[in-house]
Design brief:
Rossmann fold, 30% helix, alpha/beta
């Protein structure tokens, strides 16, 4: 690690409802601090997955914070079965607490959103504190936007595999399936419901209008990038979701793995934060370092 970064410091955030959120702060040792950077992770992906990127950004002059949403990773209760929460809590409460913690009047606050993390910006009650947002792998989640082989695989998991394990354990045991962090049953139910709709929760008659209004209030500039080999979030899926950030300046980026000297399939849905993606990291951090214009 560069001498402009240091070991991560464990932090406990307090959400507005009092729930404790596990986070890690990667403070930069650079003489010139470029900004505050918050990493909003994907569904079922623990904060440790983002450690390499956090360390890299810290070495480049950013103070970086990662977190585990409630019910997952180090923010999970001792007993996940019976744990109740709303999927939206991750954005409205947990990420919101991280935004408050990282916000400073003398430095801009940037958000990197991976998959769900790109949804979470629109759920923040304090979104005006975020100066810029760069999303990777954020899409609508609908199987219909995926290529046929991936579509069939995903439908099999949702309709056959997951229900059996959830009925057995009382939550979604992703660790047992080798797919990530275990998740509360309420998250699983909402996620499954919304992934069955072309425009995710915007198509849900129970939440549709309120969500549209909430997202339409966001004015944070967004760069929405997806890899052409990310079968879960292809450009058509990204576009289906990002249109609801109707008041924001959204720049769409389609990442061709070959442009980074990578084989098709090297990035996928998770490779954005693996070492092979360092050229992309440089692009993200360079955009954050550009002078801010008035909103």
């Amino acid at each position: 690690m560069s001498d402009t970064s240091q070991a991560a410091q464990a932090v406990t955030l307090q959400a507005a409802d009092g729930y404790p959120i596990s986070a890690y702060l990667y403070a930069t040792c650079a003489e010139t601090v470029k900004g505050q950077l918050l990493i909003a992770g994907a569904t079922g992906v623990g904060q440790q997955f983002y450690r390499r990127f956090a360390e890299y950004a810290s070495a480049q002059g950013f103070n970086v914070l990662t977190l585990d949403y409630r019910g997952t990773g180090q923010s999970a209760p001792k007993q996940l079965k019976g744990f109740q929460m709303a999927f939206e809590d991750w954005g409205q409460l947990d990420l919101a607490a991280a935004v408050d913690y990282m916000h400073r009047d003398d430095l801009p606050l940037f958000l990197v959103g991976h998959s769900y993390g790109g949804h979470a910006l629109g759920l923040l009650p304090n979104h005006e504190k975020v100066s810029r947002c760069y999303t990777v792998g954020t899409g609508a989640g609908w199987h219909g936007w995926m290529p046929l082989p991936e579509r069939l695989k995903v439908q099999f998991m949702w309709n056959v595999v997951f229900p059996v394990f959830v009925a057995w354990k009382g939550y979604l045991p992703w660790k047992m399936l080798g797919m990530g962090e275990d998740m509360p049953i309420d998250v699983y139910r909402s996620w499954k419901r919304w992934c069955g709709m072309p425009h995710y929760f915007f198509d849900d008659p129970l939440v549709r209008e309120s969500k549209k209004l909430q997202f339409a209030q966001i004015s944070t500039p967004i760069t929405a990038a997806v890899a052409l080999d990310d079968l879960w979030a292809l450009p058509v899926s990204r576009d289906a979701f990002m249109q609801y950030y109707s008041a924001a300046e959204v720049t769409h980026r389609d990442l061709d793995p070959q442009a980074y000297n990578l084989k098709f399939g090297a990035i996928g849905h998770m490779g954005y934060f693996r070492p092979l993606a360092q050229p992309l990291w440089d692009e993200i951090l360079a955009w954050f370092a550009e002078p801010l214009t008035a909103k």
